[in-house]
Amino acid sequence: MSSFAQFNLDSRIMSAIERIGYKEPTPIQLQAIPVVMKGGDVMGAAQTGTGKTASFGLPLIARILPHANTSMSPARHPVRALILTPTRELADQVSANMTQYAADTPLRVGVVYGGVDIRPQSDMLRRGVEILTATPGRLLDHIEQRATNLSQVEVVVLDEADRMLDMGFLPDISRILKLLPANRQSLMFSATFSPDIARLAKNFLKPDPFMIEVARQNQTADTVTQEVFQVADREKTDVLIDILKTRGPENKPLEQVIVFVNAKITCRRLARTLERVGINADAIHGDKTQEERQAALDGFKSGAIHVLVATDVAARGLDIKELPCVINYDVPFSAEDYVHRIGRTGRAGSHGLAIMLATREDGRLVDAIEKLTRQTFEQKPLRPLSRQARSEMRRASGERPERRGEREIERVDTPEDERLAKERARAYVPPSQRNRDPIFDTPYRERSGASGKPEELRVFERETVRKPRQAAVLLCGFPRRRD
């Protein structure tokens, strides 16, 4: 049985490991820690939940620990280890882990990301910090304000590199790399591999980096049961509600689920619809403030919220232990995103369930996922339960029968939606009033020619009595608008 003692880590790091409760190294830690401690570059293929942060965090601290000091001078605490992450949630999570690992050492740990006031971060950087976790954009802001410099960085980590590329961070990463010393140690981790990742690794890492693969590239965990259901688009929400209320133990409701969607507006509407049918749900997406996102996440972790509806970007970096189920309400546009999504469940050897709702229009997206993950899904047709069946299940569980209209999706839920709805209502013209002359209130005659455009009847062809307003128009023309 292997243990962390075999790595000959500093006693202060070992005490932190014991306090956290780590018993034995995970596969990626067994491979990465010795290489990182020796100073070699690493290209790691690892998903979340594999112990990836400790695999680079523990040896990273061991590498820069000789520089640790208790001086109050900021000059004695330059940035020596830089960890780049794609999202603020992941940055917060990684920084919290690094703080735990370095708790018994004089090393200073800090984190910077966008969406919050920049001034406290600038003050922290000017006081000095050895281990810095950052999102690329906010780090460049601090560099431009001369709050920090990277000239003494010894180790740089690119975490979730595939997501970095998906989010368009490549130009920012390139700018940051030019500011780092050439003799630095570089570590890069990605859950999926693509030609773009290979090109980034070629520029980011030294030749012949140490390759670490915990599982086959672009593969899903064996501990995750994957189910794909073919549903009609108009029935997706009802099917989702049935799954949430019946797929738990003993056909009871699922208690902790992340539901992934592709768009922020879907995220908002779906969370509100689930609330209306009695499911404790909240949404987490890019339009929410950091405080709102954190509140939703805290509620989900505590059990107050049972369903978290999320977009891909917002869900990056969520650290939720033993998540039993992930549901793809929308099939992801990118096959790599599917691997990331279902990687949220079945972590650390626990069993997980991943469900995907696919419509006929999603065929190409499902084919791309099958090609990337090298598996073939059995797509089972699934329809919502009948109202009678749902009512019987609710009676059996002690709940009142479902009332008519409870499942209707809320169509108008934002001021912008309301404004557009009012404009559409004002602009509506009944079918009986369409293609009518606005003055004479008589239908147009369809031209018999090939163009098919409506042609107004000439005045002398009408055998009707003219009203005064109509006669005035015939004699004097249309009145001018008074603006």
From TrEMBL:
Residues 2-30 form the DEAD-box RNA helicase Q domain. Keywords: ATP-binding, Cytoplasm, Helicase, Hydrolase, Nucleotide-binding. It comes from the Bacteria. GO terms for cellular component: cytosol. PROSITE patterns: DEAD_ATP_HELICASE, HELICASE_ATP_BIND_1, HELICASE_CTER, Q_MOTIF. SMART domains: DEXDc (SM00487), HELICc (SM00490). CDD domains: DEADc, SF2_C_DEAD. It catalyses: ATP + H2O = ADP + phosphate + H(+). A motif (Q motif) lies at residues 2-30. Residues 236-388 form the Helicase C-terminal domain. GO terms for molecular function: ATP binding; hydrolase activity; nucleic acid binding; RNA helicase activity. Residues 377-462 are annotated as: Disordered. Residues 33-211 form the Helicase ATP-binding domain. Its EC number is 3.6.4.13. Residues 389-426, 434-462 have a biased composition (Basic and acidic residues). This is DEAD-box ATP-dependent RNA helicase RhpA. It comes from Sutterella wadsworthensis 2_1_59BFAA. The lineage of its organism: Bacteria, Pseudomonadati, Pseudomonadota, Betaproteobacteria, Burkholderiales.
